[in-house]
Design a protein that fits this description.
The protein is mainly alpha-helical. Helices cover 71% and strands 0% of the residues.
């Protein structure tokens, strides 16, 4: 009975050790990636921009024209 208990306890300890080894390996790979990339932090790449429909493009162009007209009317210097 005691022998069976120790076998089960040993199995559980080995399973925990295995999981901890996987976590440690993942951490080491992350650190290696940072060193190879020469970066302090991993950077997430933004998704590809969506193509605007023609109505949205027209609305943006009109807003830009209004903004430029308001700058010109107020005499503010605009840096583009």
């Amino acid at each position: 009975m005691v022998e069976m208990f120790f076998k089960i306890l040993l199995f559980v300890c080995q399973a925990v050790d295995f999981v901890l080894e996987i976590v440690a390996t993942f951490s080491r790979i992350n650190r290696l990636a940072k060193v190879v990339a020469g970066s302090d932090a991993l950077v997430e790449v933004p998704a590809d921009p969506k193509i605007l429909p023609p109505a949205a493009k027209r609305a943006l162009a009109e807003a830009e024209q209004r903004r430029r007209r308001s700058y010109a009317a107020s005499g503010t210097v605009q840096a583009s």
